[in-house]
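Exercise 3.2. Students should predict the tertiary structure of the chain below and write it as structure tokens, then compare their answer with the key that follows.

Predict this chain's 3D structure.
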Amino acid sequence: MFVGPSLILMLIFIAAPLVTVFWNSFYVTKPQYEKVEVETCTPGFPKPKCTTAVKQLPLLDENGKVVTETSFVGLESYINVLEPNRLRAALEALDWNALNNIEFWQALRFTLLFTLVTMPLVIGTGLLIALTVNGTIQSIKGPVIFVSLLPFIITPVIGALSIRWLFIGDGILTAALEAWLDRDIAMFAQGWTIEILMYVYRVWHVAPFAFVVFYAGLQTLNNDTLESAIVDGANRFERLRYVVIPHLMPLIIFVLLIHLMDAYRVFEEIVGFSSQAYVISLQWLTYDFLMPDEAGTRSISRASASAMLTMVGIIVLLVIPLRRAWRDRRKIH
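Answer key:
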């Protein structure tokens, strides 16, 4: 009875949508069209000039809704997303540009790099802030903690837009760099500079979360153990390596898991930095498939396949830290 409501909510809001997305990835729903003769007349005197053309228009039912047909396509949507033929040709030719022109693999490259580069930076920066605040005198700890948490409070899209406005065009920081280096700088004219700004923003935005977790863990650290290490002649680095980090390791794994799941679904940075022309992510690719084309149709099946592939990637990344956490738990018990 205690866990029943949670299980029901998980089935409704997690399991059911996942099953629906998985089902949609194997089926394609297309609108039905009919050929209709359309007469177009231009103004004229004494008689207008009229031409007749045959056009394909969506077939409507008696209620005025577009008639659709759903058909099973198997793995076709996954093949359309992965584009294995283009991938094979690019690998055989060792053509990096051709590989980067395939949307899924371009998105996968950035998503993996973004996740794996920012992960140690977030954990390291959060731990450094936590150690610094923990060693700060008591009278100023409150203001220091408040200032350290400000980046995490800001809405992600607003934070990304703020960083973008600081650097784009004649932004404040761009103007300062141009004056310092005495040369023109265009931070948003190439993909690699945009990626660097995204990495910096993610670390700036998420490191406060790691700081809060590690700071809470430091409050439970046994001072007797630290004093014993000092008596034994351990320096600051040795105390950090052999006492503090082992004590915080469960929290480090927790932050690592949260970061992997969150960073692999990177989306706000793509929107905030308007990087679609240079850099895209797997989550943005799924979103792009869901956007209606000129005919108003959406690629629901390809979007579902992209979402499932994204979920598989997250599971693969989580395997190693989850196995580590499971082994540590078994050792404890």
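Discussion points: The CA atoms of residues 320 and 326 lie 10 Å apart. The mean pLDDT is 86.
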